[in-house]
Amino acid sequence: MKALILVGGLGTRLRPLTINTPKAMMPVLNKPFMAHVVDHLMGHGVDEVIFTRGHLAGQMERYFGENYRSCKVTFIDEEKPLGTAGGIKNCERFLDSTFFALNGDVFSTIDLSAMLAQHRSNNAVATIALTPVENPSAFGLVETEKDNQIRRFIEKPRAEEITTDLINAGCYILEPEIFGYIEPGKNTSIERETFQFLLTDHRPFYAFVDRNSYWIDMGNCEKYFQFNMDMLNGRCQCPLTPPAGTSIGDGTFVDPSAVFAGNVMVGRGCSIGPGVRIEGPVIIGDRCAVGNNTVLRNSIVWENVEFSPDDVVTGSIIAGRSRLGGQNRISDSTLADGVYTPSDYSLSGSQIWPGTALSN
Ligand code: GDD
Ligand code: MG
User: Fold this and answer.
1) Active site (catalytic) residues
2) CATH class label, 246-352
3) Domain Nucleotidyl transferase: where (predicted)?
4) Which residues contact 159 (CB under 8 A, 6 or more apart)?
Protein backbone atom coordinates (compact mmCIF):
# COMPACT_ATOMS: atom_id res chain seq x y z
CA MET A 1 0.00 0.00 0.00
CA LYS A 2 1.17 3.53 -0.77
CA ALA A 3 1.40 6.50 1.57
CA LEU A 4 1.58 10.10 0.41
CA ILE A 5 3.25 12.46 2.85
CA LEU A 6 2.78 16.22 2.57
CA VAL A 7 6.05 17.90 3.37
CA GLY A 8 5.43 21.22 1.69
CA GLY A 9 5.75 23.60 4.63
CA LEU A 10 8.73 25.82 5.44
CA GLY A 11 8.76 24.92 9.15
CA THR A 12 8.52 28.61 10.00
CA ARG A 13 7.50 28.01 13.61
CA LEU A 14 10.54 25.75 14.10
CA ARG A 15 13.00 28.46 13.11
CA PRO A 16 15.90 28.91 13.58
CA LEU A 17 16.34 25.11 13.56
CA THR A 18 14.66 24.72 10.15
CA ILE A 19 16.64 27.36 8.29
CA ASN A 20 19.19 24.76 7.15
CA THR A 21 17.42 21.55 8.16
CA PRO A 22 13.97 20.57 6.88
CA LYS A 23 11.47 19.70 9.61
CA ALA A 24 11.36 16.13 8.29
CA MET A 25 15.10 15.70 8.92
CA MET A 26 15.23 17.13 12.44
CA PRO A 27 16.68 14.46 14.73
CA VAL A 28 14.42 12.66 17.15
CA LEU A 29 16.37 10.14 19.24
CA ASN A 30 19.21 10.78 16.79
CA LYS A 31 17.22 9.71 13.75
CA PRO A 32 15.34 11.97 11.31
CA PHE A 33 11.77 12.70 12.36
CA MET A 34 10.43 11.42 9.04
CA ALA A 35 12.21 8.08 9.42
CA HIS A 36 10.13 7.43 12.55
CA VAL A 37 6.99 8.24 10.57
CA VAL A 38 7.93 5.91 7.70
CA ASP A 39 8.92 3.12 10.12
CA HIS A 40 5.45 3.32 11.66
CA LEU A 41 3.80 3.22 8.22
CA MET A 42 5.91 0.21 7.21
CA GLY A 43 4.78 -1.59 10.36
CA HIS A 44 1.26 -1.37 8.90
CA GLY A 45 2.05 -2.68 5.44
CA VAL A 46 3.11 0.48 3.60
CA ASP A 47 5.70 -0.45 0.97
CA GLU A 48 5.86 2.78 -1.03
CA VAL A 49 6.08 6.35 0.20
CA ILE A 50 5.53 9.42 -1.95
CA PHE A 51 6.87 12.69 -0.63
CA THR A 52 5.91 16.05 -2.03
CA ARG A 53 9.23 17.78 -2.57
CA GLY A 54 9.40 20.70 -0.16
CA HIS A 55 11.85 23.03 1.58
CA LEU A 56 15.45 21.65 1.44
CA ALA A 57 14.19 18.37 -0.05
CA GLY A 58 17.73 17.46 -1.17
CA GLN A 59 18.57 16.43 2.40
CA MET A 60 15.57 14.11 2.48
CA GLU A 61 16.47 12.64 -0.89
CA ARG A 62 20.02 11.94 0.25
CA TYR A 63 18.75 10.17 3.38
CA PHE A 64 15.86 8.17 1.92
CA GLY A 65 17.22 7.63 -1.62
CA GLU A 66 15.01 5.59 -3.96
CA ASN A 67 14.51 2.93 -1.31
CA TYR A 68 14.38 3.23 2.46
CA ARG A 69 14.70 -0.19 4.09
CA SER A 70 12.23 -2.26 2.00
CA CYS A 71 10.10 0.76 1.11
CA LYS A 72 10.14 2.40 -2.34
CA VAL A 73 10.50 6.17 -2.13
CA THR A 74 9.35 8.74 -4.70
CA PHE A 75 9.69 12.52 -4.57
CA ILE A 76 7.21 14.65 -6.50
CA ASP A 77 7.93 18.24 -7.49
CA GLU A 78 5.48 20.95 -6.59
CA GLU A 79 6.61 24.07 -8.38
CA LYS A 80 4.43 26.41 -6.37
CA PRO A 81 2.68 25.51 -3.10
CA LEU A 82 -0.59 23.79 -3.98
CA GLY A 83 -2.01 23.50 -0.47
CA THR A 84 -2.94 20.26 1.25
CA ALA A 85 -5.48 19.15 -1.40
CA GLY A 86 -3.53 20.48 -4.38
CA GLY A 87 -0.44 18.65 -3.10
CA ILE A 88 -2.40 15.39 -3.07
CA LYS A 89 -3.95 16.03 -6.50
CA ASN A 90 -0.46 16.65 -7.88
CA CYS A 91 0.40 12.99 -7.08
CA GLU A 92 -2.73 11.57 -8.74
CA ARG A 93 -0.82 9.68 -11.43
CA PHE A 94 0.93 7.59 -8.75
CA LEU A 95 -2.19 6.70 -6.78
CA ASP A 96 -4.67 4.34 -8.43
CA SER A 97 -5.94 2.45 -5.37
CA THR A 98 -6.64 3.04 -1.66
CA PHE A 99 -3.80 5.07 -0.09
CA PHE A 100 -2.74 6.73 3.15
CA ALA A 101 -2.19 10.49 3.12
CA LEU A 102 -0.39 12.15 6.01
CA ASN A 103 0.49 15.62 7.15
CA GLY A 104 4.28 15.58 7.24
CA ASP A 105 4.61 17.19 10.67
CA VAL A 106 2.64 14.65 12.65
CA PHE A 107 3.84 11.54 14.42
CA SER A 108 1.43 9.04 15.90
CA THR A 109 1.22 5.42 16.89
CA ILE A 110 -2.34 5.15 15.55
CA ASP A 111 -3.24 1.58 14.59
CA LEU A 112 -3.33 2.13 10.84
CA SER A 113 -4.21 -1.52 10.17
CA ALA A 114 -7.38 -1.21 12.27
CA MET A 115 -8.12 2.10 10.55
CA LEU A 116 -7.79 0.44 7.13
CA ALA A 117 -10.04 -2.45 8.18
CA GLN A 118 -12.68 0.06 9.31
CA HIS A 119 -12.30 2.09 6.09
CA ARG A 120 -12.89 -1.08 4.03
CA SER A 121 -15.84 -2.32 6.05
CA ASN A 122 -17.51 1.10 5.67
CA ASN A 123 -16.75 1.23 1.94
CA ALA A 124 -15.58 4.76 2.70
CA VAL A 125 -14.26 7.25 0.17
CA ALA A 126 -12.28 8.89 2.97
CA THR A 127 -11.49 8.03 6.57
CA ILE A 128 -9.87 10.54 8.92
CA ALA A 129 -8.06 9.52 12.09
CA LEU A 130 -9.22 11.60 15.05
CA THR A 131 -7.26 12.26 18.19
CA PRO A 132 -8.27 14.19 21.34
CA VAL A 133 -6.57 17.48 22.28
CA GLU A 134 -7.17 19.92 25.10
CA ASN A 135 -7.74 22.88 22.83
CA PRO A 136 -8.89 22.16 19.26
CA SER A 137 -8.67 25.80 18.11
CA ALA A 138 -5.37 25.31 16.23
CA PHE A 139 -6.61 22.18 14.46
CA GLY A 140 -9.44 20.76 12.39
CA LEU A 141 -12.35 19.96 14.68
CA VAL A 142 -14.43 16.97 13.61
CA GLU A 143 -17.97 16.17 14.73
CA THR A 144 -19.21 12.65 14.11
CA GLU A 145 -22.45 10.67 14.14
CA LYS A 146 -22.85 7.59 16.35
CA ASP A 147 -21.71 5.29 13.51
CA ASN A 148 -18.57 7.46 13.03
CA GLN A 149 -19.81 9.15 9.84
CA ILE A 150 -18.47 12.67 9.73
CA ARG A 151 -21.11 15.30 10.41
CA ARG A 152 -19.02 18.47 10.38
CA PHE A 153 -15.39 19.44 9.79
CA ILE A 154 -14.38 22.89 11.04
CA GLU A 155 -10.80 23.92 10.36
CA LYS A 156 -9.40 26.21 13.12
CA PRO A 157 -12.73 26.49 14.99
CA ARG A 158 -13.63 29.65 16.88
CA ALA A 159 -14.20 29.25 20.62
CA GLU A 160 -17.98 29.07 20.20
CA GLU A 161 -17.62 26.33 17.58
CA ILE A 162 -15.76 23.94 19.89
CA THR A 163 -18.19 21.11 20.56
CA THR A 164 -15.77 18.18 20.99
CA ASP A 165 -12.13 17.49 21.88
CA LEU A 166 -11.63 15.36 18.76
CA ILE A 167 -9.53 16.79 15.96
CA ASN A 168 -8.21 15.73 12.58
CA ALA A 169 -4.97 13.88 13.35
CA GLY A 170 -3.61 14.69 9.86
CA CYS A 171 -3.80 11.04 8.80
CA TYR A 172 -6.24 9.93 6.12
CA ILE A 173 -7.13 6.86 4.11
CA LEU A 174 -8.42 7.96 0.72
CA GLU A 175 -9.86 6.36 -2.38
CA PRO A 176 -8.82 7.66 -5.82
CA GLU A 177 -12.38 9.02 -6.09
CA ILE A 178 -11.08 11.91 -3.96
CA PHE A 179 -9.20 13.29 -6.97
CA GLY A 180 -12.54 14.13 -8.62
CA TYR A 181 -13.14 16.61 -5.80
CA ILE A 182 -9.88 18.57 -6.25
CA GLU A 183 -9.32 21.11 -9.00
CA PRO A 184 -5.93 20.56 -10.68
CA GLY A 185 -3.13 23.13 -10.67
CA LYS A 186 -4.77 25.27 -7.97
CA ASN A 187 -3.87 25.92 -4.34
CA THR A 188 -6.65 24.13 -2.48
CA SER A 189 -7.17 22.87 1.05
CA ILE A 190 -8.37 19.36 1.81
CA GLU A 191 -9.65 20.59 5.17
CA ARG A 192 -11.53 23.68 3.99
CA GLU A 193 -12.62 22.52 0.54
CA THR A 194 -12.36 18.81 -0.38
CA PHE A 195 -13.82 17.47 2.87
CA GLN A 196 -16.69 19.97 2.65
CA PHE A 197 -17.48 18.74 -0.89
CA LEU A 198 -17.64 15.13 0.36
CA LEU A 199 -20.10 16.21 3.05
CA THR A 200 -22.27 18.15 0.58
CA ASP A 201 -22.34 15.14 -1.75
CA HIS A 202 -23.16 12.78 1.15
CA ARG A 203 -20.29 10.48 0.21
CA PRO A 204 -19.24 7.75 2.71
CA PHE A 205 -16.87 9.79 4.85
CA TYR A 206 -15.86 8.36 8.23
CA ALA A 207 -13.79 9.01 11.32
CA PHE A 208 -11.48 6.50 12.96
CA VAL A 209 -11.46 7.60 16.59
CA ASP A 210 -8.33 6.75 18.54
CA ARG A 211 -8.19 8.16 22.05
CA ASN A 212 -5.31 6.02 23.29
CA SER A 213 -2.41 6.25 20.85
CA TYR A 214 0.42 8.76 21.10
CA TRP A 215 -0.03 11.74 18.78
CA ILE A 216 1.94 14.95 18.30
CA ASP A 217 2.07 17.75 15.72
CA MET A 218 5.72 18.74 15.79
CA GLY A 219 4.85 22.27 14.77
CA ASN A 220 7.11 24.36 17.02
CA CYS A 221 10.31 24.12 19.07
CA GLU A 222 8.41 23.31 22.25
CA LYS A 223 6.63 20.39 20.59
CA TYR A 224 9.88 19.21 19.02
CA PHE A 225 11.50 19.19 22.45
CA GLN A 226 8.52 17.41 23.98
CA PHE A 227 8.47 14.73 21.26
CA ASN A 228 12.13 13.89 21.82
CA MET A 229 11.66 13.68 25.56
CA ASP A 230 8.49 11.60 25.22
CA MET A 231 10.43 9.17 23.06
CA LEU A 232 13.39 9.11 25.44
CA ASN A 233 11.25 8.73 28.54
CA GLY A 234 9.16 5.93 27.03
CA ARG A 235 5.90 7.92 26.93
CA CYS A 236 5.90 7.17 23.21
CA GLN A 237 7.33 3.80 22.30
CA CYS A 238 9.22 3.30 19.05
CA PRO A 239 11.77 0.68 17.99
CA LEU A 240 14.55 3.07 19.06
CA THR A 241 13.20 3.80 22.56
CA PRO A 242 16.18 3.05 24.79
CA PRO A 243 15.82 1.25 28.11
CA ALA A 244 15.53 3.60 31.11
CA GLY A 245 18.89 5.04 32.20
CA THR A 246 21.92 5.70 30.05
CA SER A 247 22.48 4.33 26.57
CA ILE A 248 25.79 4.93 24.84
CA GLY A 249 26.36 4.59 21.08
CA ASP A 250 29.09 2.53 19.44
CA GLY A 251 32.56 4.00 19.44
CA THR A 252 31.79 6.55 22.15
CA PHE A 253 34.45 7.12 24.78
CA VAL A 254 33.25 7.92 28.30
CA ASP A 255 35.73 8.96 30.96
CA PRO A 256 35.19 6.85 34.10
CA SER A 257 34.69 9.99 36.18
CA ALA A 258 31.71 11.18 34.08
CA VAL A 259 28.36 10.94 35.88
CA PHE A 260 24.98 10.20 34.29
CA ALA A 261 21.57 10.61 35.91
CA GLY A 262 18.05 10.07 34.56
CA ASN A 263 17.42 9.02 30.96
CA VAL A 264 20.32 9.85 28.68
CA MET A 265 21.04 8.82 25.11
CA VAL A 266 24.51 9.42 23.73
CA GLY A 267 25.16 8.88 19.99
CA ARG A 268 28.06 7.16 18.26
CA GLY A 269 31.65 8.29 18.13
CA CYS A 270 31.34 10.83 20.95
CA SER A 271 33.84 11.70 23.62
CA ILE A 272 32.65 12.44 27.16
CA GLY A 273 35.44 13.97 29.21
CA PRO A 274 36.45 13.75 32.87
CA GLY A 275 34.11 15.24 35.45
CA VAL A 276 31.26 15.66 32.94
CA ARG A 277 27.79 15.50 34.45
CA ILE A 278 24.79 14.64 32.27
CA GLU A 279 21.42 14.93 33.97
CA GLY A 280 18.64 13.49 31.83
CA PRO A 281 16.54 13.77 29.97
CA VAL A 282 19.38 14.49 27.56
CA ILE A 283 19.96 13.35 23.98
CA ILE A 284 23.40 13.81 22.44
CA GLY A 285 23.94 13.24 18.70
CA ASP A 286 26.79 11.40 17.00
CA ARG A 287 30.40 12.63 17.07
CA CYS A 288 29.99 15.20 19.86
CA ALA A 289 32.80 16.14 22.19
CA VAL A 290 31.88 17.08 25.75
CA GLY A 291 34.81 18.75 27.46
CA ASN A 292 35.92 18.36 31.06
CA ASN A 293 33.45 19.22 33.83
CA THR A 294 30.71 20.29 31.43
CA VAL A 295 27.17 19.87 32.74
CA LEU A 296 24.25 19.08 30.41
CA ARG A 297 20.69 19.00 31.73
CA ASN A 298 17.32 18.47 30.09
CA SER A 299 18.65 19.26 26.62
CA ILE A 300 18.93 18.05 23.03
CA VAL A 301 22.25 18.17 21.23
CA TRP A 302 22.55 17.39 17.50
CA GLU A 303 25.60 15.91 15.70
CA ASN A 304 29.16 17.19 15.76
CA VAL A 305 28.71 19.63 18.64
CA GLU A 306 31.67 20.57 20.78
CA PHE A 307 31.49 21.68 24.41
CA SER A 308 34.64 23.15 25.88
CA PRO A 309 35.45 22.64 29.57
CA ASP A 310 33.05 23.90 32.23
CA ASP A 311 30.04 24.68 30.03
CA VAL A 312 26.65 24.38 31.73
CA VAL A 313 23.66 23.84 29.42
CA THR A 314 20.10 23.52 30.73
CA GLY A 315 16.76 23.20 28.93
CA SER A 316 18.24 23.96 25.52
CA ILE A 317 18.57 22.67 21.96
CA ILE A 318 22.05 22.90 20.44
CA ALA A 319 21.99 22.11 16.72
CA GLY A 320 24.71 20.50 14.62
CA ARG A 321 28.31 21.74 14.36
CA SER A 322 27.91 24.33 17.10
CA ARG A 323 30.81 24.98 19.45
CA LEU A 324 30.59 26.37 22.95
CA GLY A 325 33.69 28.17 24.09
CA GLY A 326 33.99 27.01 27.71
CA GLN A 327 32.58 28.34 30.98
CA ASN A 328 29.31 29.07 29.18
CA ARG A 329 25.96 29.29 30.96
CA ILE A 330 23.25 28.44 28.42
CA SER A 331 19.66 28.01 29.56
CA ASP A 332 16.27 27.71 27.86
CA SER A 333 17.82 28.62 24.51
CA THR A 334 17.91 27.30 20.96
CA LEU A 335 21.20 27.50 19.10
CA ALA A 336 20.80 26.67 15.40
CA ASP A 337 23.54 24.89 13.47
CA GLY A 338 27.10 26.19 13.37
CA VAL A 339 26.83 28.67 16.25
CA TYR A 340 30.04 29.62 18.06
CA THR A 341 30.21 31.13 21.52
CA PRO A 342 33.28 32.64 23.17
CA SER A 343 34.48 31.50 26.59
CA ASP A 344 32.72 32.77 29.70
CA TYR A 345 29.45 33.49 27.86
CA SER A 346 25.87 33.46 29.13
CA LEU A 347 22.57 33.07 27.27
CA SER A 348 19.07 32.66 28.61
CA GLY A 349 15.81 32.28 26.68
CA SER A 350 17.53 33.11 23.37
CA GLN A 351 17.23 31.88 19.81
CA ILE A 352 20.44 32.07 17.83
CA TRP A 353 20.45 31.96 14.03
CA PRO A 354 22.67 29.48 12.11
CA GLY A 355 26.32 30.29 11.71
CA THR A 356 26.33 33.10 14.28
CA ALA A 357 29.66 33.72 15.97
CA LEU A 358 28.70 35.33 19.26
CA SER A 359 31.09 37.61 21.10
CA ASN A 360 31.32 39.03 24.60
N1 GDD B 1 2.83 19.62 -0.53
C2 GDD B 1 2.32 20.59 0.22
N3 GDD B 1 1.97 21.77 -0.36
N4 GDD B 1 2.22 20.41 1.55
C5 GDD B 1 1.71 21.40 2.29
C6 GDD B 1 1.32 22.64 1.76
C7 GDD B 1 1.47 22.82 0.35
O8 GDD B 1 1.18 23.88 -0.21
N9 GDD B 1 0.88 23.42 2.78
C10 GDD B 1 0.97 22.69 3.90
N11 GDD B 1 1.50 21.47 3.60
C12 GDD B 1 1.78 20.39 4.53
C13 GDD B 1 2.60 20.86 5.72
O14 GDD B 1 3.99 20.68 5.45
C15 GDD B 1 2.12 19.94 6.82
O16 GDD B 1 2.87 18.73 6.81
C17 GDD B 1 0.68 19.62 6.42
O18 GDD B 1 0.54 19.94 5.05
C19 GDD B 1 -0.36 20.39 7.25
O20 GDD B 1 -0.07 21.77 7.18
P21 GDD B 1 0.10 22.67 8.50
O22 GDD B 1 0.39 24.05 8.03
O23 GDD B 1 1.03 22.02 9.45
O24 GDD B 1 -1.39 22.64 9.04
P25 GDD B 1 -1.87 22.75 10.55
O26 GDD B 1 -0.99 22.03 11.48
O27 GDD B 1 -2.20 24.18 10.85
O28 GDD B 1 -3.29 21.95 10.46
C29 GDD B 1 -3.36 20.69 9.84
O30 GDD B 1 -2.91 19.67 10.70
C31 GDD B 1 -3.67 19.48 11.92
C32 GDD B 1 -3.06 18.30 12.66
O33 GDD B 1 -1.77 18.62 13.03
C34 GDD B 1 -4.83 20.43 9.45
O35 GDD B 1 -4.85 19.27 8.66
C36 GDD B 1 -5.70 20.26 10.68
O37 GDD B 1 -7.02 19.91 10.30
C38 GDD B 1 -5.14 19.18 11.57
O39 GDD B 1 -5.91 19.05 12.78
MG1 MG C 1 0.90 21.20 11.41
Assistant:
1) 156
2) mainly beta
3) 2-232
4) 137
Sorted by where each begins, the domain ranges of the chain are: 2-232, 246-352
- Spatial contact of 158 and 164, defined as CB atoms under 8 Å apart: no
Rounded CA gap, 49 and 52, in Å? Answer: 10
Q: Please write the tens of the pLDDT for every residue from 177-214.
A: 999 999 998 999 999 999 999 999 999 999 999 999 99
How far is it, in rounded angstroms, from Cα 153 to Cα 206?
11
Higher local confidence (pLDDT), 346 or 12: 346
Interval between CA 217 and ligand 2 midpoint (Å): 6
Task: Determine the residue of 34, 79, 103, 188 to mutate for testing ligand 1's pocket, defined as the one with the most ligand atoms within 8 A of the Cβ atom.
Answer: 103
Taking CA atoms only, the protein residue closest to ligand 1 atom 2 is: 8
Angle formed at CA 31 by CA 223 and CA 268, multiple of 5 degrees:
125
Q: Is the CB of 108 under 6 A from ligand 1?
A: no
Query: What fold characterizes domain 2-232?
Result: Spore Coat Polysaccharide Biosynthesis Protein SpsA; Chain A (3.90.550)
